[in-house]
Amino acid sequence: MWLRRLALVLVPGTLVACGGSELPDAEALDAVHEAHGALAADVTVSFQRGVSPSSTYAGVSDTWLQEGLPSTNAGVDTLLRMDRDYPSASGQSANALLRFDLSTLPAGATVRSVKLTVNVTNRTSGEGFFLYAAGRDWNEAQATWARATSTSTWSAAGARGSADRGSSVLGTLLPAVTGPYTVTLGAAGIAAVQAWVDNPASNRGFVLDANTNMDGLDLASSETTTLAQRPQLTVTYTPGFVHPGLHVSKAQLDFVRAKIGAGAQPWLAQFNKAVSGSYANTAWTPKPVPTMQCGNGGSTVDIGCYNSRQDALHAYTLALLWYHTREQRYADAAIRILDAYADTLQTILFVNGDNSTYNGPLQAAWLAELFPRSAEILRYSGSGWTEEKAVRFGDMLKRAVLPRITNGWAGGGSNWNNSMTNGVMNIAVYTDDKALFEKSLGMWRQHVRETYYLTSDGAVPVSAPDQRNADGTWKSGVLLSSWRGQTEFGTARVNGISMEACRDFGHATMSIASISQAAETALIQGVDLFSEQEARLIASAEFMARFLVPHAPDNNGQLTLPVDSWLCARRSEFVTKNGQPVPNNTMEMQILPTWEILFNHYVTRKGRSMPSTGALLPRVRAGGSFTDLQMSWETLTHAGVGSVGL
């Protein structure tokens, strides 16, 4: 399939598979990023018993410990007492324990600030009282001066041993008046709460104590009648990445798994295709190479290129089968492929102007679109893949693959750029790299506007930075060559036409796939790219589907179709097939296994009208191939999933 589609090439200049010259560095791309938000903004949430995050929140535990009554529990008291001389003139101590259940904070969140608000009923003076991280489990209804629980003692009475509390002061309480009082935790306090978010089981709360202060401090406890006076912890955090959240989410995978189990269509049919196909081979032997070299433009050099794509398709299929069957043999086979690449692949060669390395960036893009999908599923589904190996695989992606795609590809919004964008986003999510994710959003926003034309763009399509003059106009001849001989713009009938439509619908569909896949990943991560370009993406899909439904052959076959004079009027000047110029006013039809993601989002989720795309889907699902580079098993993963998990 890949070799057949690459038979169509551009005539002028260097022969290429799908694009143009690589940008020299990241500066050119960064300069044209639009100022849009990336991941969801910082979130602030408060934890207060009976109040927030909801009126049913009961996740606060607190009590106070008194040396004078070492076996007495005060878990139901309405106040928390701290003092180095209680009762007065006794020289005995009292201190407090306080814990907030923070398990609802999302995994991967980055804690930015933490504030503790209490209601002071007896103010103090002097040195203040300090917050320490509790070092052992304790029970609100059982803790006493002598014991943490009914079955365990403190290492030193009053929770004062090194095993009972940390040594770092997380915050200081020194209220001058009674009433509400807020302390902002310092860096050590933020680090402690971050550790609790990262590992909720480590959250044992705070010990409140002083070193010498004999002027006591009393606070309202979580049992006090007035809700607003109960202790409150306020955490501001930056949401982390959702995992698994690359191409598919856990909720989507679980939805499809349930459909397969229920024998529902079209999922069961697609699953049966996957489980009975060649990519389900658990004895598959991967063939990674240290240095990958992929030629094009007349060069047939292939050192690890075709094999790596086959390895990636095997790994992805096997990962899906593992998830839906929980048969360990599938996971083991997929892990074996990924580990082989993590241990072997060092670089993908590319030398500008060298045809023997020309397809290096495109190869890297395809691998970045496919390999991380498998890794994400395996890493977050209990497959047995160790975290060390999973991290090692991410290191390989950044070492060998990312350098070839992170700077994009000059020449506008061809499928090269869209594949690169999707690949960069995948690597960003897999490696939890927020800056890289933001960069991928900028790439998407730039390239989707270059790839598909809307009449609202004006009399000509949106150009890439390297395609335009200083005054913003297209460079001489570049518009015509970039759009493969399409001459008419500015009319309703060309609304949604793709930059590569006059080249062939195979390559134009590859852009549909990469753009929609990246938008789906972004949506799972909280960024709605679909809404930003709704009109453009619907128009692009409907434009192609109107031709594909009545004219494209079955089973992924190709057909040259005569079209009206306003379409591809000068195609023969820029596209050849089998070494010969193609006729003007023709288009190359081909149905490839994508379309599900766009249709699911705009029709199933949003209720938009896409009649031609809807009519195309049955032919996609009945096609002869369900895997084709980045277009792989989309019916199995995204058909009818709606808004599950969002």
Automatic annotation (TrEMBL):
<feature type="signal peptide">
    <location>
        <begin position="1"/>
        <end position="17"/>
    </location>
</feature>
<feature type="domain" description="Carbohydrate-binding module family 96">
    <location>
        <begin position="55"/>
        <end position="150"/>
    </location>
</feature>
<keyword id="KW-0456">Lyase</keyword>
<feature type="domain" description="Alginate lyase">
    <location>
        <begin position="311"/>
        <end position="449"/>
    </location>
</feature>
<dbReference type="Pfam" id="PF05426">
    <property type="entry name" value="Alginate_lyase"/>
</dbReference>
<dbReference type="InterPro" id="IPR055372">
    <property type="entry name" value="CBM96"/>
</dbReference>
<dbReference type="GO" id="GO:0042597">
    <property type="term" value="C:periplasmic space"/>
</dbReference>
<dbReference type="InterPro" id="IPR008397">
    <property type="entry name" value="Alginate_lyase_dom"/>
</dbReference>
<dbReference type="Pfam" id="PF24517">
    <property type="entry name" value="CBM96"/>
</dbReference>
<keyword id="KW-0732">Signal</keyword>
<keyword id="KW-0964">Secreted</keyword>
<dbReference type="InterPro" id="IPR008929">
    <property type="entry name" value="Chondroitin_lyas"/>
</dbReference>
<protein>
    <submittedName>
        <fullName>DNRLRE domain-containing protein</fullName>
    </submittedName>
</protein>
<dbReference type="GO" id="GO:0005576">
    <property type="term" value="C:extracellular region"/>
</dbReference>
<dbReference type="GO" id="GO:0016829">
    <property type="term" value="F:lyase activity"/>
</dbReference>
